[in-house]
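Aim 2, interim progress: modelling of the pyridoxal-5'-phosphate-bound target.
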Amino acid sequence: MITPVLPTYNRAPMAFVKGEGSWLTAEDGSRYLDLGAGIAVNALGHAHPALVAAITEQAAKLWHVSNLYRIPEQEKLAEMLVDKTFADTVFFTNSGTEAAELAIKMARKYHYDKDRADRIEIIAFEGAFHGRSTGAIAAAGSEKMVKGFGPLMPGFRQLKWGDHDALRAAITPNTCAVIIEPVQGEGGIRSVPDQCLKGLRDLCDETGTLLIFDEVQCGMGRTGKLFAHEWAGVSPDIMMVAKGIGGGFPLGAVLATEKAASGMVAGTHGSTYGGNPLGCAVGAAVMGIVSDDAFLDEVSRKAALFRQGLEGLVASHPTVFEAVRGQGLILGLKCKASNLDVVKAAYAEHLLTVPAADNVLRLLPALNIPDTDISEALARLDRTAARIEAA
Ligand SMILES: *Cc1c(COP(=O)(O)O)cnc(C)c1O
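Predicted structure of the complex, ligand included:
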């Protein structure tokens, strides 16, 4: 018999009732060290006092008004994002998927308005993940996500990871945009090398193709810069943001240059909840903390500490782990053993990790995880590996 909750997830049996920093308390009172952070959502850990204050204050004042009116909290967060990024303008959504939908629409509308309605094709990459809407699954194109849900939205193609010649050849007069995660999350914590992002930017400039970065998972300070693409010194025309920006409140955004956004005039797009006062008050509190240079330097310092420990684990457990991947605190352990077995063994050590494609164990801790919790996480990962070796 079907469960009251639609059974689209293979869920672990634990349920959590309370969170504090990098720790979650389960129904039975036991505590788990959280290296998943709601899949990069709880960027400041659980129950951060500044976020609790921001949501409580706003909740007592005003939860929701329609986008029929000016929303000062939304304007404030948009200004903060414009101030700290390449972008000239921002649209707020409730999720990464909705950000993908707008990014696709914006890119197509840009060319349409230039009398190039034929420029509709969007190029994506194997292993990509952009969300679960019909548009986003068509963009990523993975068999697992699209099977049974046809007909797919036309106008997408996927290229092999790292095949520069194929990319150059794939850009035709019909190409509208290229969409890419600077660090693939679901795909197995695969970073695009800086020189490849630079080359991609040049190729897009040469051909008038719009460049869309999906920083839903790797953005908002996770790599030690506010956005991952900053490491390469290039910027996109359009960028998708979500997950960490709300710190646990459902919030997403599309950031764009004035040029790329030029077609999105009044009436072309909207959202009932997107950018409402409650979400934007929380988002502004997150941005206020995460966009600070000293905070970002701390992310890099913690990441170096964590990474060093992970390299040690790879060396001491060569039959379980193979290599460390990622940048900043979006880290992956490429596994020799089954990554799903490792995730399960970690549960037994009361440690929460997240599997990714390519047999990778994802580690996405809160960006402010204390050094002592990093040491504790490494000790639990060590014991996790010992469990696998003993099995
Ligand atoms: C999670 C994710 C999305 C989808 O975001 P939702 O909020 O789940 O809709 C899109 N792109 C990337 C890179 C993601 O990690």
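Residues 157 and 366 are 34 Å apart (CA to CA). The domain at 16-34+293-390 is CATH 3.90.1150.10 (Aspartate Aminotransferase, domain 1).
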